[in-house]
Each structure stands twice: as structure tokens, then as C-alpha cells.
Task: structure prediction
Amino acid sequence: MTKLNPVLKWASDLVQKVRPTSIETKQKLQGKVALLTGGASGIGYSIAKSFLKHGLSALTVADIHRSNGTEAIKDLTLQFGEEKVMFVECDVTNTNQLNSAFQETLRHYTRLDIVINNAGMMNDAFWEKEIHTNIGGCLIGSLLGLEYMSTTSKGDGGVIINVASIIGLMPCNGFPIHTMTQYGIVGLSRALGGHYKRTGVKVFGFCPGLTQSQLIETAHKNTLNRHFAKIFCREVEGCYLQHPDSVGNGLVKIIQTAKPGSIWFVENNGEPHEIHFPKLQDMIHEK
Result:
């Protein structure tokens, strides 16, 4: 495995490798319908491809970029069939638009089993939009997922997966505002996980390590200023960028075994790991 930059060591120290499961991945997703935000490119597109490849019955891709969405659906249709995928243009910060994506999914496929809140941005220079997209979009998607899938409401239970990043496990000094949004997604996922017995909806978080994507490639241009850009470049210097397919495939592997409120991490094209957070008393340092 490629040697980690010191900035990643803390997260690496927290992980515990998952034992391979004997359940066939196609059985996990067979008959299931999913809604994926931010699925038109990058990690989102790789998640879409991996889920369909491993037996997902149908998928709605909700994305703000119509051109990317149209192209993604075209490619996915060629690979998996027209009846398997649908695109809905949607701004995740707009509750009405995202609600319409949920309703359209139910009208078209008659059910909804999995919600993947993946839409996000990494641009501290436009921090208000970043906060609305990353935290707001994830929150709206989670609340709508509970509304439509909870056994106490309109549904039969399901799964909500909130996608953050390694920066939700450790601070990135070059991107302090993005760090805040990623920690928020992790905290939300852990807190909502505690409602599984009441709702029948399992919520967990997924934090990929550094991954090949336009978001990472252009990140140095999107800091608060050049001082933050220099710090970010030093933090990621020499780090390994995993292939986005590792993220999608890793998520498929854990969707059934992940516990409510758990947080997962995948890096270096490896197996997914569960994060084990220390107890509060273990974090207190007495003088």
C-alpha cells in the first residue's frame, strides 16, 4: 500500500478492516430502487455504475447539471438498459425540486429502497453555496428519505447513505469551511442512525479517501485565498488518488452489513473500513 502523507495518518489509525462477506452482492441489491444525488459525474457516477452492475433494479440520478446528467444516462442506458435508469434535473438545496425527484421515482418505479446523498462541492471561495449544497442538500435528502421510506410514515423501511469524505474524519487546514461541512455530514449520519428501530430506515455515512475526480483536481483553485491553497497543496503532496470505481464497489460491499449510525472509509483502492470513534472520556487529557 502506498505510504500515507502524515495528514492522512490519523484517519488511517482509526480504521478496522472489514471481513469479506459471503453474501453475493447481487442479492443485496436485487429488486431494489435507489435515488442518487450528484450522480452524473465523478464518484456519483461510479456509485451509479457499481450499484447497477451489482443487481440494482432501477436508479434515479438527480443532478443539477443537465448536460452531464443526459450524458450519464445515455452511457448507463447502453450498459444496463433504458428501463433501469432515469434522470431528474434537480438542485438539492431546493426542497421542492428534491421532493419532486422523490415523487417522480415513486411514480415511475412504484417504490424506493435506497437514498444516496452524494451531491456536494469543494469550494471555500463560495462558502455560502458550499454550506447550502453539502450540509443543506444532505439534510434535505435525509429528511425526505425518512419521510418516504420510514415505517412510521409512507414507506416500508430502507437505507440512507450520506457520502462525505476523509475530511469528515480529520481537518483539512487548506479547506476549513469544507471541513466543517464534511464533519456535519458525519455527525448527521451518526445521529440519525439512532432512529433505526423506530423508522426502519438505516442511515450511515461513507467517507472516501482522496479520489480521482475533477473536484480534487481543481481544488487548489477553490480555496479562500492563495495562502490556504499553499497549505492544501502541502497537505496532499505525495498522496495517492484512488480510482472512483473503488468507492462505488466499496459501498456495494457494505450496504447490507453496515450498522445504523456507522461511518465507513475507503482508500487506496482497498477494502472499506469502519471507523471506531473513541469514547468521550478517552479523549480527555488530564494535566
DSSP finds twelve helices and nine strands in the chain. The CA atoms of residues 60 and 86 lie 5 Å apart.
